[in-house]
Amino acid sequence: MAADISKLREMSVEELDKEERNLRQEVWKLRVQHGTGQLSNFRKVRQTRKDLARVMTIRKERELVRS
Question: Of 65, 67, 53, which Cα lies nearest the Cα of 8?
């Protein structure tokens, strides 16, 4: 999933938490596939990590606004 920033900003905190868990799991799976030589699309690892960073950034922004 290529995360669209506007869609992520519309998500609730619970939805962002769920998305973060899913992306972390996906990164782990991709790293395992890469380590075993089963991964054919190396760009997917980078894109998934960027999506995870976007989710984490939005969560952090919301925490700072509440403080």
Answer: 53
Tokens at 13, concatenated: 């905190």
Q: What is the pLDDT of residue 29?
A: 96
Instruction: Report the CATH number at residue 24.
Output: 1.10.287
Q: How would you classify residue 37: left for phi > 0, otherwise alpha for psi between -120 and 50, otherwise beta?
A: left
Is residue 2 predicted with pLDDT exceeding 80? no
Number of folded domains in the chain?
A: 1
The boundaries of the domain holding residue 18 are 5-66
Q: What is the largest CA-CA distance in the chain?
A: 45
Q: Do residues 47 and 2 lie in contact, with contact meaning Cβ atoms separated by under 8 Å? A: yes
Closest to 62 in 3D by CA, of 1, 2, 20: 20
